[in-house]
User: What shape does this take?
Amino acid sequence: MTDTTRVTPSAGVDQTGPTASALNAESVGAPPLLSAHKVRKSFGAAPVLKGISLDVAAGQVMCLLGPSGSGKSTFLRCINHLERIDGGRISVDGELIGYAARHGRIFEMNRREVAKQRGGIGMVFQRFNLFPHMTALENITVAPIGVRGLAKPAALARGRELLDRVGLADLAQSYPAQLSGGQQQRVAIARALAMDPKLLLFDEPTSALDPELVGDVLDVMRALAADGMTMVVVTHEIGFARGAADEVVFMDGGIVVESGSPASVLDHPQNPRTKAFLDSVM
Amino acid sequence: MPNLPPTRPGPEAAPRNDPDPRNPRVAVLPNPDDIDAVPLRHPWRWVVAVLLLLVFAGVAVSLWQNDNVNHPTISEFIFDRRILDGVVLTLVLTIVSMAVSTVLAVLLAVMRLSNNPVMNALSWLYIWAFRGTPLLIQIVFWGYLGLLYARITLGIPFTDFSLFSVDTNTLIPAFVAGLLALTLNQAAYSAEIVRAGMLSVDEGQYEAAYSVGMSPTFTLFKVVLPQAMRVIIPPMGNETISMLKNTSLLSVIAVLEVYTVATQISSQNLRQVELLVVVSCWYLLLTSVLSIPQYYLERHYGRGNARTLPPTPLSRVRAILRPAPRPADPIRADAS
Assistant: This one.
């Protein structure tokens, strides 16, 4: 599950040749798992992202804060190619998102290749987006069985284990309509985890929840962070950002206004826009 | 509100549902806690029901006593061998054309919703052509295809090379022509129903499916279509019943379905009305039978949408015959 178990043996055992991450490790230290470079995106004539550059190292948690319309969610959707970027580049674990290099040229990926790439990047949505015609367990196992070709008994066992991990072991046979918002969101997290993603994206995971249900979801997310999962979280939960994030990024108007450790950005913001935003939400 | 001084105990503080001696209209209630009212009466329902019963009885009696209707003829032909064969052919035509047209409809709907401009235009053209001309004309057209192309040849266009060549009337007898006409016409209508169903599925479902690595095709079959079915099935039930009755149009190209058979018989014995009654009875029976699978399909694809589904007629009967050991056990959506 954790990235350390995956990276360490390949660095030590794999002697066939220098991998991209190994090369990076030599030059910059720890390789960033997610690297975004001058990412630009417009919807029609309206620019939404005006050159976002940021890196997330393996095992790190990054929280994206900012007023609505600042481009946080759009950026998150660009990371798993739900939106196509207009400029710049995004790579995850050394692979360009949406493009492949062949014979010295960059080609746009076809839909099958994009789908395969997305399997390694989990996403949790604001509105849960569980499949309403499947039980909680089916929601979790449908992709491992249908996309990865995992054997059904193994997938079911793993699905039950994941449900147990998010505290819903006894609700495996419930349909989403029979679950509360907080339970649905925890099933959605388990669904994303079932694909063993390298990176987990959260798009305002608690914004659609009743206040008393937020805590359960945040607890699951904190546990994931503690287990070493690499996460990018768009959130308005300042408390979560303070406690769980390794880095906090404040975005406004399609650019990164300020970034740094939670203590520096949240407690000693330098930029007046960050200050104004934090004053309004805290 | 929290800053109000504590109220002194006084007459206002008394609970409201105690009989108030100063208000006799409240005091006369025999039960102060619950309302024990006389239910509202609906006398006009009874009046209208009796009037309607009289009208129906009058029509029924006049039909029964009409000397122009020969009742023994109806009972003679209702289970006639030729009529029964016609009923079977009508059913086969309905089921095969609905099944094949539904597959075509899904294809057309996916093409219509795709980003591929060629597919999109092709689907639009198909629906425009087959929905824009009368079914009767399409049936006659397929029936007389031999007048347009005496032989059907498969080969490479604009060359003399041909793989095979057959006589049109051998390849497409009346039955096949009828089946083609019904299927191709129905596909155009069903495509719009399927498209509506697919549009009813939330955009977030596609995003969630893609985010776990599903391909567009896998997403279509596992996520989108099962949810679209809930919207698709009721109008498709309608279309099936329409189709059953539209098979009678195939009489113009002499396909031996039940209506064609009935007209053939009545042209010999001149009992037109009696044979129309016979086929109407069969159509009514078949449409009633065909609505049963719709009910169960709707239940199947409705799972996950209702918290608990109502019991089926069958499980209701079972519950009466054999009372459940545990009371109030809701029938789970996935139990059927």
About this structure: Chain A touches chain B at residues 80, 82, 111-112, 115-116, 118-123, 125, 127, 129-135, 142-143, 146-148, 173, 175-178, 188, 191-192, 194-195 (CB under 8 Å). The first strand of chain A starts at residue 32 and ends at 43. The radius of gyration of chain A is 19 Å.
